[in-house]
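[agent] plan:
  1. take the single chain provided in the ticket
  2. run structure prediction with default settings
  3. attach structure tokens to the ticket
  4. add a short note for the reviewer (M.T.)
[agent] executing step 1
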Amino acid sequence: MRATTVAIFLGLSLFLAGCVNPNAGTALPEEIAASRASVPAPASITLLTMVNDRNGFGEHSALLINGSQQIIYDPAGSFRHSQLPRRDDVVYGVTPRFAEYYNSYHARFGYYVKVQKLEISLEQADAMIAASIERGSVPKLFCATAISDVLNDFPQFASFQSTFFPGAIMKRFAEVPGIVTSEVREDDVGQNYRTD
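[agent] step 2 finished; step 3 output follows
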């Protein structure tokens, strides 16, 4: 093996080793099954984008998916709650209360959460949940890539190109017919408020 090939191989190995997501959850199947949350509301997908209030730059993306169960797909995210099992990048047992808590966790002085909700069929929602689970854990900085890759398998989002920028997905999502948009903001003393 030539020295150049060896150097490239070693460099690639080190890069891939650094791609392990230290925030990946390790919940057991029985914990996931016990926490299953079914929400009696129409099936839907909600894009959650954490936005820098100073420059409007999207800094993180996640999906709240309500199908036969409700989960949050939080690729490369740091969110944890003692009552919510997390396996890889999927958070299980998400009731409406915990969905609000997730937004509150991210909304703070200088940042808000853009909430973009779309009703879809139950079959689509369950397929998106399955696709999110199948992706496993993604490395840091790959949240937008993971979200766009899950979305563009479905007709409404087929034109979404893979991107590293959460703000780009947020802007594309806004163009989909039927999107209902709101924001979650939190002031200095931690009081949530919504603007619809």
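[agent] step 4 note for reviewer: The first strand starts at residue 25 and ends at 26.
[agent] ticket updated
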